Amino acid sequence: MTPILELRDIHTFIGQYHILQGVSFTAPHGAITALLGRNGAGKTTTLKTIMGLTPPRAGEIRFEGRRIDGKRPFEIAALGIGFVPEHRAIFRDLTVEENLKIAERKKGDYARKQEMIFSLFPDLKRLIHLRGTNLSGGQQQMLAIARALVADNRLLLIDEPSEGLAPVVIEGLMSAIRQLAADSTVILVEQNFLVASQLAEHYVIIEEGRSVKSGRMQDLVNDRAAIHRYLGAA
Amino acid sequence: MAKMATLLRKNLVLILTLAVMLALFAAAASGMSQQDFVITLLRGLAVGALTFLVASGFSLIFGLLDVLNLAHGTLFMIGAYIGWTVYVRPDTFVDVLTPLALIVSGFTLRDVWAILARRVPPSGAWGRTAPWLAIAPGALIGFGVMRGYPIASWSLENYAESPVTFSFLAGQGQRVIPAHATFGDASPLVAFGGLILASMLVAFGMTLLGRSETHAQSRVTWRSVAPFAGLVIGGMVVFAVNEPLTAWLFALDTNWLFLIAVLVAVLSGMGLGALMEITLIRPLYVRPIYQLMLTLGLSAIGIEMVRAIWGRPEFTMPKPALFAGSGEGCPAESLWLALQNGCSTMIFQGGRIRVYNEIFVPLVGLVVLIAVWLLLKRTRLGMIIRAGVQDREMVEALGINVRRVFTLVFALGVGLAALGGVLAAPSIGLSNTMGESFLLNALIALAIGGLTSYPGAAIGSLLVGMLQQFIIKYGQIGIAIPFTEIVFKPSPPLVPASTILLMVIILLILPNGLLGRKE
Ligand SMILES: Nc1ncnc2c1ncn2[C@@H]1O[C@H](COP(=O)(O)OP(=O)(O)OP(=O)(O)O)[C@@H](O)[C@H]1O
Ligand SMILES: [Mg+2]
């Protein structure tokens, strides 16, 4: 089976800075793959490169076998990729409902997915007419993920969902992400190794803009030396 | 209640500022007769409405695209001149339609050009010269054909045939239908073919030049050639019915003709805006300073072009019949009677006010205010605009073609400016520099109201309009300084100065303007 996503020797520049200097990995269908690495390693840039927001200068990206590098972000998204950016970037001036509606790609997407989204994040239902600014951090994160679920996305790119959230809230998010992974493939950037190791089946370690190690999460969990070397003490 | 209290506390400065302004306003009112006050108020409303049309478009563009469009005033002016042309010289308008449609036609075949472009090697001597091998002959053919088609059928040298004179005659109800433009000796079909060919060559050449950006379809579908066919056929049909169409427009009731003029001005403004965004603004999003310089340059170029086509002298645009009468029953006692008799003026609170300037224009301003507000709050496009103001990348990552939304918003903003221009023309007349004072007004209004706040644009415009009109009025009647014998008469230069002063004061108290967001 072809992997849902495949990156081959990706090089990305931001301005004159050579940020990604060879990232390659594949994400298998229907599983969660965690992107790990220290601060500034290039995890966010990798997700943005897949989305076309920081287009690669060299290398190949394939989604379901089709080349997507060089396409514009809206075209890439329209193929069925949902993006949950870091720092809970919801639209602050829009209400919760508008934040969801804006993500429609076909008429009626929101109406169709409403039930699924609110069963996953019951809190959002009662906040539906509140403006984004007025949500708590955890609620904003839920909204950011929910927004990526409105359209029919087969691949979700989620950047540091647990960042700055209380442990209880993280618990809730984790179970939501686990449920998501039942229907779609997830690529997850996660600093919290405990969270990542409990969620993901596969991992890719990025260091200084290069993918240096990847494999099954199970193996990494047992590899103390690697954890220490690439991620610092875990 | 607690909510009220926090709201009060948060906006204390704003509320105090508004209260002080209200007090000043009341003081201004007490210094003049009620009749003067009402008239000044309405005039302020009129200037405020026109300012708002410029300011709202400007702030829409700035809010979403981060472009300070310094050409906005010039586009306002161009709107006025286009509207005037349709209204006073419909024959010229009809004459322009055919070549315009044909020249645009080739550019709509983008998909075809993109596919053909793949056959041309992108680099090497051939790749570098190929675009110009298409553009140069295209341009030559285009100029050659257009040289034989005299469109500007008024004369800037000959006073008897100048825009000034045509305006005057139209105002008198005398309309002579000039002969329509022809392609000289050339057969029309040859000329059509020439224009279409020219358009195609230039469009193809430009596709070759900007090749890296093309993401067109790989196949030519009926949908991609339909606009081309429509334009070509439309252009030819207009040519065939040129004379009856012109005659019909000349015979049309001026109210309807005015409506058509407004529509054409707005649509041309939108077209011009879209063209400007796609060709000139878009490549420079990464260089905001260049963009600023570019809009400044375009503004000057626009003024020169208007001078070349319509001439330097100022002229008027006659008001439509509904607002132009002065015969029996005028000035009317009520608005209803004024409209019935088509009076240009009416009596209100003892004063004589002009129906077009002081009632119609503010009303249109109000309608636009509400319409744009509904667009922003109730439509998907509005939602995308509001989201895009904050985070364009995320909007794009949701699968929305933000580039297209940018073009649309730019077009919309310029359309609003053009609407302002064509509405202003019958009340303040046309001049090459009419846009500059309104752009300045609009900038001040936006600084006062908060740069990207839509209600702020409305309030700021209103304040600027009011303040100016009150200063002008006091320039005539003088201000009696309390406890003294002195009567102070503000001189005309104080009019712009006063609004700038207001802006400075408000910005000192509220650095983000009245309704601007703190970020
Ligand atoms: N706009 C930019 N200009 C210059 N350098 C940038 C820019 N954006 C990111 N970088 C650099 O690229 C590198 C990778 O950044 P990236 O955000 O991808 O890291 P990350 O792995 O997501 O880190 P974190 O875990 O802190 O979020 C960093 O060194 C960062 O400083
Ligand atoms: Mg990051």
List keywords for this structure.
heterodimer; A: 234 residues; alpha/beta; 10 strands; 36% helix; B: 519 residues; two-stranded antiparallel ribbon; 71% helix; globular; binds adenosine-5'-triphosphate; binds magnesium ion
Offer a concise description of the structure.
With 234 residues, chain A is an alpha/beta fold. In chain A, 36% of the residues lie in helices and 26% in strands.
Topology:
The complex is a heterodimer of chains A (234) and B (519).
Chain A: E1 5-14, E2 17-27, E3 32-36, H1 43-51, E4 58-63, E5 66-67, H2 73-78, E6 81-84, H3 96-101, H4 109-120, H5 122-126, H6 137-149, E7 155-159, H7 167-180, E8 185-189, H8 193-199, E9 202-207, E10 210-216, H9 217-221, H10 224-231
Parallel strand pairs in A: 3-8, 3-9, 6-7, 7-8
Antiparallel strand pairs in A: 1-2, 1-4, 4-5, 9-10
Chain B: H1 2-10, H2 12-30, H3 34-65, H4 72-88, H5 90-105, H6 110-117, H7 124-147, H8 163-171, H9 188-209, H10 222-240, H11 242-251, H12 254-281, H13 288-310, H14 335-341, E1 345-348, E2 351-354, H15 355-378, H16 380-390, H17 392-397, H18 402-428, H19 434-449, H20 454-477, E3 479-480, E4 487-488, H21 494-509
Antiparallel strand pairs in B: 1-2, 3-4
Judged by helices, strands and strand pairing, the structural class of chain A is alpha/beta
Strand order of the largest sheet of chain A: 6-7-8-3-9-10
Hetero groups in this structure are:
adenosine-5'-triphosphate, magnesium ion
| Largest interface (CB < 8 Å) | A-B, 23 and 20 residues
* Distance N to C terminus of chain B: 27 Å
End-to-end separation of chain A in angstroms reads: 34 Å
Percent range of helical residues of chain A: 25-40%
What structural class do helix, strand and pairing data of chain B support? Answer: mainly alpha
Radius of gyration of chain B: 26 Å
Q: Kindly state the mean pLDDT of chain B as a whole number?
A: 86
Total number of β-strand segments of chain A? 10
Major pleated sheet of chain B: 2 strands, antiparallel
Give the beta-strand count of chain B. Answer: 4
- Beta content of chain B comes to under 5%
Number of helices of chain A: 10
Give the CA-based shape of chain B.
globular
Shape of chain A: globular
Helix count of chain B? Answer: 21
Q: Output the radius of gyration of chain A.
A: 17 Å
